[in-house]
Protein: FAD-binding domain-containing protein
Amino acid sequence: MSAVRHVLVSGAGIAGPVLAYFLAQAGIRVTVLERAPALLAQGQNIDIKGSAIVIMRKMGLIDELKRYNTLEKGTHFVDDKGRFFARMPVQEGLATSPTQEFEILRGDLAKLLFEATKDHPLIDYRFGIIIEKVLQNDEKLVKVQLSNGETLESDLLVAADGQWSKIRRDNFPQEWLTIIDKNMYGIYFTVPRKPTDTNWWTVYTAKKSRVVSSRPDSHGTYRAFLSLMPSNEQQKNAWQSASRGDRQTQEDLCRKEFGDAGWEAQRFLDAMSDADDLYFQAVQQIRLSKWSKDRIVCVGDSAYAPTPLSGMGTPLAINGAYTLAGELANLKEGAPITTALEEYERKFRPFVAECQDIPSFIPSIMHPYVAWKRSLLWSFVSAFAFCARTPLIINRFGGAKKNDDEDYPLPKYAAFEVTKGD
Structure:
């Protein structure tokens, strides 16, 4: 039996419930606190891939993942008239499209994970409550004061409360945190679906460093995404200010910057005000020099948000939660809890570093400012799409998809080796 008896988790998004599931498998009691008054079943399309699929299989959730799949057929690129010039369909067993086999909305995944854990006798979810203050954090225990006035004691406090974690901000040295700004901003929201909309991820690159795209979902609506890279200091300041501003400021800026973008930009802008899930994001990466401090540890975006550019935010959250749970489950009586936290970081940090290593030129290539650079990008994408559909080229240059566990070989933990379902 593990030396850990009780773990307190802040955040009921992705990492928190995955961690709770595996801790409960090891007989550890878990309390999950969530700021929102109810589960937030919102969010845009995300990928589940690699070893994260293996973990979902261990949880018996593969059939549920398939049920919630967005049914996205692949990715195609269009010009300003909506004519596609490059198409990359999902091909079984091949890594030839940005679209993955398991495409799901973030809110659907959060709901799925909550449903899989909410009735476990060792897991207690408490909504509408946050940790106001950590009162004690030493070799004996961690003690916190909650927003309802209650105090709780635990063996460990886990910050699974996202990229701008309150737990991390209040309890970790500021010098441990590095924020890597990618000079890119993204706006996500839901729009009504039209009869002519397809089940493809459609990407349009406008001039002046703008991208407009749309994706299908499993709810009969469509997901719009606008992104922009500021080209001067004045524009940068306006977007950075809007990222911290109110919704009206954000909408006004989007209309100003994307009104002449072309393709279906105006359609999406017209629907923006009616969306109840608009999310305006400054694309920034979180790097934390040390993931734990005494009995407080960060997991998921609070420790290593890789940005949407990587496509690895959700897989990192799932893999990190699994690894942390495994090390806590293996902790022997009498061993300091810092042993498990250090092992979690030692085993998982190399994979995190690999996922966060995004070449600085990638965003600017995908956001050309002038026409000739856009033409060059379109030619490259078209050539790549052709190659991705040519068996001889795929076989020659290694387009075969890796096994699920090749990206991050999962550590073996005895408590988790029973696989539920297929």
